[in-house]
Specification:
Layout: H1 30-33, H2 42-56, H3 77-80, H4 96-118
Length: 119
């Protein structure tokens, strides 16, 4: 055998980083950094939002950035009547294939409603 020492008992070079050759790198966790700082309180947020709304001349938001919306009337009835269509397919003919497609989509909607209610 040679006069060289076993490599496990040798002194590591001074710039040696264990595992660096195979891609291992150091990482930092939250516990290393310490606790996070406290954010603004809810009152401070509301005050800042009201101040910003006043600068913009807009109504004061009711929640974090959300302005109260008036409920719009749902006009779903016009979408249910094939005779009252508007837009791209208003001039098309409504035939037996369309009836079958409507029935299939209605079956799928009913099945999805049942699944949603089962949850």
């Amino acid at each position: 055998m040679s006069g060289r020492k076993d490599f496990l008992s040798q002194q590591a070079p001074e710039n040696y980083v264990a595992g660096l050759g195979r891609g291992a790198t150091g990482f930092t966790t939250r516990s290393d950094l310490g606790p996070a700082r406290e954010g603004p309180s809810e009152d401070q947020i509301k005050e800042a939002l009201a101040k910003r709304a006043a600068q913009l001349g807009a109504p004061t938001p009711s929640a974090y950035g959300a302005v109260e919306k008036k409920e719009e009337e749902d006009d779903d009835e016009r979408f249910q009547d094939p005779e009252n269509e508007v837009g791209l397919f208003a001039t098309g003919a409504y035939d037996r294939d369309d009836d079958e497609a409507d029935r299939i989509y209605q079956d799928i909607d009913d099945r999805m409603d049942r699944r949603r209610k089962a949850r």
